[in-house]
Amino acid sequence: MLNRYTYGPRVAYFSMEIALRSDIPTYAGGLGVLAGDTLRSAADLEIPMVAVTLVSTAGYFRQELDEQGRQRELPAVWDPASAATPLNAKVVVLIEGRRVWVGAWLYSVNGLADNSHQPVILLDTNQEENSEADRRITDHLYGGDEVYRLKQEAVLGIGGLRMLQALGFTISQYHMNEGHSALLAAELLNRYAFPKEELRPGESAYDVPRVRELCNFTTHTPVEAGHDRFSYEVVRRVLGEDFMDLATLKRLAGDDALNMTRLALNLSDYVNGVAKTHAEVSRRMFPGYRVRAVTNGVHPITWTSPSFSKLYDQHLPGWSHEPELLIRADCCIPDAVIWEAHRAAKAALIDKVKALTGAVLSPKEPIIGFARRMTAYKRPDLLFSDLARLKNIAQQWPFQLVLAGKAHPHDEGGKRLIEQIHYYLRELQADVRGVYLPGYDMALALEMVAGVDVWLNTPLRPYEASGTSGMKAAFNGVPQFSVLDGWWAEACIEGVTGWAIGDSSESVNGNDANAFYDKLENVVLPLYYTNQPGWVAVMKGAICKNASFFNSHRMMRRYASEAYLR
């Protein structure tokens, strides 16, 4: 079964979450969706990789919202046998002094070519040899306390490395997508340690240069508190005294706690942030490290609606393999055809809104869309800073709102934001049609980014590492209206690909709310209502200048040439 994958060297891509399909809940949000797009593009481009993640049979969670916007988290249970194949291999990871057995499932990500596939190894501790508690380690994505989290990261990094070896893979490079899997680098140190009898007094047993040559690390978090840390007391309890020399571990991962990001930084020869601004922030956070910038991208076919896929197939054949061909959209595709494709996507979103909420939106009024993880720094409430002004704008230039997004189960502030947004929508209902859609997932995301007229993003600077939802919108001719942070700092050409809220030199809060209202009232909505050719020109700008570049094919070609083949 694995013969077609184990022949020849591959890049091993480790990620705590990977969005394989919308209905397989092995992802929580943007990090997992990016990982899925990475593999889909690798399959299309026939870059030999193998991915490792957790099976997460209880998923992240399924979101339910009551009329007040109170979030309820329900298990998102899935049976891996419904989509994956069990593998006849098991490895052991020592956790809390116990031998924890780890099994695996195989899922294949298919590329454009018939014979192009990328294997994904789903690690599973639900094995009969394990205790009930150990069988649950790979159940919940990002579940439990600090101890549970470290157990998961030990299974991912240490167990994943051992599983690849047990399955017969030849690995040329390792790529850690965020710090969750950094223990794989520590395990590599143990694997390539020098024999004690060959060491001179005072020499380290660990071949750090050799491990660094094998490892690549992509960091995604521009917030210091967002990086995983584990007290050394917990590390000793979970991994045991003999996992690694404590002095060496502290030198590589920090004196006060095991910082997974710092461990990955010290054991990776190639390190990158996910946008130019994010790389700059990361270099300030971790001075002394060379952090390159590879701006994220999204998978062309996955994030293009049926109406636009058909349009591109007709006018720009080959675009799905060479999305750079979309640069010709402005001259090769008639305006009327672009507008008609958008009308079809908008109609599909309006139907989805009615099915989910019973609300009826107008196809004639513009729809502003916003869907993010609901947390404070994303500022989903900036839009509602001045309800009176929103009402006044809507009286002159009617518009509609469609929002969605989950809050982490432990993020009480994020949950309150969802409730506040529901309150604001009720207050606006006489003047502005607005809905909050429950159960945000990949399928709903596609319908939103394709069906709205404007994609809104309002993060606090500089906390948006990259952001990819606006890239998805661009593939569907939807311009972004956003704060200049993350990818948008590179992609925004004012009035050509979309619009900026404020400017990059403003303070973290700045005057963003007023800047948003001013431009919405005086630029964006008047253009929509009074100048359709001008509006379609911006749609084409989003396609030919953003979608043609900010895609995961370009991203993967850069990883291949700059990281994997170095």
Summarize the helices and strands and which ones pair or pack:
Elements lengths: L2 H4 L2 E7 L14 H16 L3 E6 L7 E4 L5 E4 L10 E2 L4 E5 L2 E13 L6 E8 L7 H4 L10 H22 L2 E8 L5 H9 L16 H7 E4 L10 E2 L1 H8 L6 H8 L4 E2 H7 L3 E4 L2 H10 L6 E2 L12 H10 L13 H4 L2 H23 L9 E5 L15 H10 L3 E5 L7 H17 L4 E5 L4 H10 L2 E4 L11 H6 L5 E4 L4 H4 L6 E4 L10 H19 L1 H16 L4 H13 L2
Parallel strand pairs: 1-2, 1-9, 2-8, 9-10, 10-13, 13-14, 15-16, 15-18, 16-17, 18-19, 19-20
Antiparallel strand pairs: 3-4, 5-7, 6-7, 7-8, 11-12
Helix pairs in contact: 2-21, 4-5, 4-7, 11-13, 13-16
What does this structure look like?
It is a single chain. The longest helix has 23 residues, at 335-357. Strands 1, 2, 5, 6, 7, 8, 9, 10, 13 and 14 form a ten-stranded mixed β-sheet that branches. α4 (146-167) crosses α5, α4 (146-167) packs across α7 and α11 (306-315) runs antiparallel to α13. This protein has 21 helices and 20 strands. The chain is α/β, with parallel strands linked by helices and 566 residues long. The protein starts with a helix and ends with a helix. A hairpin with a 2-residue loop joins β6 and β7.
